[in-house]
Amino acid sequence: MPASHPNGDGSLSVLTTLPGRPSLSAHRDDLGDWCGLDLDPALAGLAVDRAEPLSVAVRFSDGEEWHPPVSRMTGFGYAWHPDLPLLAGLAHGPGGLHPWIADCAARTVTELAEIRIAASLTTFGNAGGAPLCWLDRDRLLVLCPEIREETEAAAATEPLVYDAAGPGYVSFEPGIEALHAAAGARLFELDLTSGTGRPLLPDSLLVRHLERGTDGSVLVDHVSGLRPSTRAGTGAQRLAWAVGRLTEAGLEPLEDSAALRQPRPRPVRPSRTPRAGSVEEVVTIPTGFHDAVLTVSPPGAVDATVLWLRATSGPLRAELPGPNGFVGADSRQAVLDLPLHWPGDVTLEQLHGQLERAIGASVEHLGDRVVVGGHSFGATLALYALAHFPALAAGIAQSGCYNRTRVCGGFQYEKRPYWAVPEIYHAFSALLFADRIRRPVLIAHGLDDANPATHPDQAVEFYQGLVAAGGEARLALFPCEGHTFRYRETHDRLQEIQTAWLANVLERTPALR
User: Fold this and answer.
1) Taking CA 283 as the corner, what is the angle to CA 280 and CA 286, rounded to the nearest 5 degrees?
2) Residue ranges of domains in the chain, CATH in brackets
3) pLDDT of 155
4) What is the residue-averaged pLDDT of the chain?
5) What's the CA gap between 184 and 207, in Å, rounded?
């Protein structure tokens, strides 16, 4: 299904059709990195975690479609004129991004190939923020790359000296200056008649979104700095945001930023009542706090179930299949959405009680030959379950952290440092209870995982430790993949590996009940 981006009154919309997943052939080795965020020098901003569009069409109110004749459209960054049938968009060119203007009434397109546009952070979360915004009939507000002089790098002969005083989390990741250097952008007013532009602010910004307000003013959603933190985090967690109104005097901070349409996060669908005739089974499990929700697909050709665990911050429901590849193609699938109650003073006993009730009830409901799995923190929960529930047949751990003592400033919902609650860190470190895992484990990890808590070394170390403790494991490491697997070929290969591994495990796991 194509994604739709309508204009203000809904009389026009731009339809963008994208492949389901990008191909591994589109992987690039020239991307930079800032705290887990990929930086694309060709975009002068964050890289786009999706393929180029298959088609882009303007749909009119009568259903007729027109395909603007622009090669290599980006598929993001559209801006409709608030009053006229004018659409601005972006295209890839030899020098980077450049804008194009489509007059939908005349069905003509003007490409401004000499104007370089910076994506900055408008692709943040693939939410579809725009690096351009209409000011009037002949003027656009655009983001342009900051021009910097090339300087020769000094020889690395000096020692690196650091000082720190705790408590706090020491990180050797680059500061905000490095992100500014790669993705900082200047706000320019572009005159479409003359093709000239003028800067509106003296300094560059890290911009997530530009939008024209209802009063005609321009709102700028941008980075205001770094969040104070005592623990490691990805770039998404470290950035603080602010909204300002563009004026002649500069950028005026807004007290209330509700007027700006914030970029949409990837949706998490709430719990719902299944439709009449639905083939899914939904089971509610009390945990003593929030209810867990178990969603079960119909039985498959193989007499087994893959139970996918996912921690949530509230009573939400996951979708089938699992989030990181089709798991167990011929088996029944189940997803347990587990909303953990994890206050600042939680004890291990309270956490174990919630997990024991939710996972225990799920295993009891599903019966024999249940393989438990999860992604990221879900992988930790899957291995925790494997160590505490002997009835489970095997485990699948994707992109997990298996030694929490290496991230001693906090993890997931736990904000206390290791020394305050070592028992909780140990309880959720699979490497430290590897001797209690007596079922086969499939470990899958991306070799380019830049999440500070889930470096690929975590997977290798756990694999070694599990085997040293007498366990059985298969380790699958995927080149060019990060914390969440992106490429079509990876998902295909992951399905093959998981299906073959699952068949081998189940061959040795007879039904007991």
Assistant:
1) 160
2) 3-253 (2.120.10), 281-507 (3.40.50.1820)
3) 60
4) 85
5) 8
